[in-house]
Design brief:
By secondary structure, the protein is an alpha/beta fold. The chain has a domain of 154 residues: Rossmann fold. It is built from 7 helices and 10 strands. Helix 5 packs parallel to helix 6. The protein is globular. The chain starts with 14 loop residues before the first strand and ends with a strand. The structure holds adenosine-5'-diphosphate and magnesium ion (MG).
Length: 221
């Protein structure tokens, strides 16, 4: 964990936020957030409950619209995309990981992963690297919560996204699964991807290139 490290942003950033603000009715969730994440960077975002962390991720994913500010991902202004453009952006550019895996209960593991796109060979590699071999033809209900979360990560990586957004992905995981998830994210950035992960988990924070803290809708510097 390296709080002081400068952004390792070479060339154009993969994610650029400038003056991002978002309120729900009278609740100010984000109050002028600016940050940049480079190619091959693993950035962790922490902060107290209600600080605006999930709001920030959902804005970047194009699931919410900002009140003010700019969100650029791989050079595209997310809030200017049309409805169809946003859907394509989420399918092609973004990989999303939630605290719970949110798998489709009646599809087996391989089909759950391939539901996000990608190809069978790459899905098989992810299944192996995440320690899920022997599980590919099981349905989610036959897996532990930790195994299900590893499937959730494989599904987020299978279409080779540019940026993975993860919201407390190791929240309730045993050490083996937490390590598999962190190593999977780490491998993704070694291969040139970028990661923004909301977490308080020391097992994740210690593997991040940078740790940012969000408090009351602002990045604390
Ligand atoms: P965090 O993920 O850091 O816990 P959130 O982004 O979920 O924070 O929420 C930030 C603030 O916005 C909180 O005060 C929360 O109660 C409020 N909030 C989040 N979503 C909504 C919503 N849909 N409607 C109203 N208020 C919301
Ligand atoms: Mg949250």
């Amino acid at each position: 964990m390296s709080e002081e490290k400068q952004p390792n942003v070479k060339g154009p950033p993969v994610l650029l936020l400038q003056g991002l603000s978002k309120s729900y009715e009278k609740v100010v969730a984000l109050d002028g957030v600016s940050l940049a994440i480079g190619e091959g960077e693993f950035v962790a975002l922490r902060g107290p409950s209600g600080a605006g962390k999930s709001t920030l991720l959902y804005l970047v994913a194009g699931l919410l619209t900002p009140d003010e500010g700019a969100i650029q991902v791989a050079g595209a202004e997310v809030s200017k995309l049309s409805g169809a453009g946003k859907t394509r952006f989420r399918k092609e550019v973004i990989g999303l990981v939630f605290q719970d895996a949110r798998l489709i209960p009646y599809l087996d593991i391989r089909a759950n992963i391939l539901a996000a796109g990608g190809d069978d060979d790459w899905a098989t590699q992810l299944i192996t690297s995440l320690g899920l071999e022997g599980r590919a033809s099981h349905v989610p209900g036959q897996l532990s919560a930790g195994e299900q979360q590893r499937v959730g990560l494989a599904r987020a990586l299978v279409h080779r996204p540019t940026l993975v957004l993860a919201d407390e992905p190791t929240g309730n995981l045993d050490d083996v699964s937490a390590e598999a998830v962190v190593n999977g994210l780490r491998q993704f950035v070694e291969d040139g991807g970028s990661v923004l992960v909301v977490t308080h988990d020391p097992r994740v924070l210690e593997k991040a290139d940078r740790v940012l803290t969000l408090e009351e809708g602002r990045i604390r510097s």
